[in-house]
Write a structure and sequence with these properties.
This protein has about 190 residues and is an all-alpha fold. About 75% of the residues lie in helices and about 0% in strands. It is elongated.
Length: about 190
């Protein structure tokens, strides 16, 4: 399980996403590149915001803080998004999104659960965020243009994927360090106090 989940660590996902972003631009599909960058950035940004909000609030003893799975969200939007973009030419919007991203979300979610790193709710939120990112990506990117060839991007991304597999960024620990800024009024009720 650790082998599979490591493909979705930020140390791997971010460089692979950068390769795809550059590859889409180099292929002349600027709309696709912009949509991919925005979808990945927004998805990971929402995960970060949720983590900061949820990890920054003190909890009663024995209760764990909610931490949406960034592995599931990031893996889904990057791998599932790239695959869904490619599949869209053949299967259309909804089928491409389902075929390209749902299996990725499920596989990464199962690994996180099997390793006891997240709860069902945390991987479900991560999956929903990742799938939402894929849908936004497909909507904003439009159809894959005939002239866009991604062979070079895949050839560059594959070695990076293999070289960085197993490298882990301590993102969760750094987020926990940053999360202490929450005002007490927000934490007490889950909303801003009047």
């Amino acid at each position: 399980m650790r082998f599979l989940t490591d493909f979705a660590d930020l140390a791997v996902v971010l460089p692979v996403a950068a390769c795809w972003l550059v590859g889409l631009g180099a292929a002349g599909w600027w709309r696709g590149a912009a949509a991919f960058g925005a979808a990945v950035g927004a998805t990971l940004g929402v995960v970060l915001a949720l983590k900061l909000l949820c990890l920054g609030c003190p909890l009663p003893p024995g209760r764990a803080a909610f931490s949406a799975s960034g592995h599931v969200a990031g893996g889904t939007v990057v791998y599932g998004g790239a695959l869904s973009l490619w599949l869209r030419r053949r299967f259309g919007f909804w089928r491409a999104a389902g075929i390209g991203s749902v299996p990725v979300a499920l596989i990464i979610a199962v690994t996180r659960l099997a390793l006891h790193l997240h709860s069902v709710g945390e991987v479900a939120v991560g999956a929903l965020l990742g799938l939402g990112g894929v849908l936004a990506l497909l909507g904003a990117a439009g159809s894959w243009p005939d002239q866009a060839r991604m062979g070079r991007a895949v050839l560059v991304a594959a070695p990076i994927l293999l070289l960085l597999h197993g490298v882990r960024l301590p993102a969760e620990a750094r987020i926990r360090d940053l999360a202490g800024w929450m005002p007490a009024g927000i934490c007490a009720t889950g909303r801003v106090a009047q």
